[in-house]
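for the recovery benchmark. tokens below, seq after
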């Protein structure tokens, strides 16, 4: 929705996901995993379009930071 993209490289595969397409291709071997996410902060997105209208992300972040430390690893 914000015209960003996702790129994941692992093993001998590379996955690129954009608003227009998804491309999976073979690459030379990569030891480990690489994840790149681009989020364009200059484009307003209404998060309720892809989450529950009742979801309060600020409350969830606060709860995770201060009350759910054992779940964050």
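predicted aa per position
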């Amino acid at each position: 929705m914000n015209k960003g993209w996702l790129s994941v490289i692992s093993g001998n595969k590379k996955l690129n996901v954009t608003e227009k397409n998804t491309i999976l291709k073979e690459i030379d071997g990569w030891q480990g995993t690489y994840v790149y996410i681009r989020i364009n902060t200059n484009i307003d997105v209404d998060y309720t379009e892809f989450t529950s209208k009742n979801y309060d992300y600020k409350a969830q972040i606060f709860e995770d930071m201060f009350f759910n430390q054992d779940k964050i690893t």
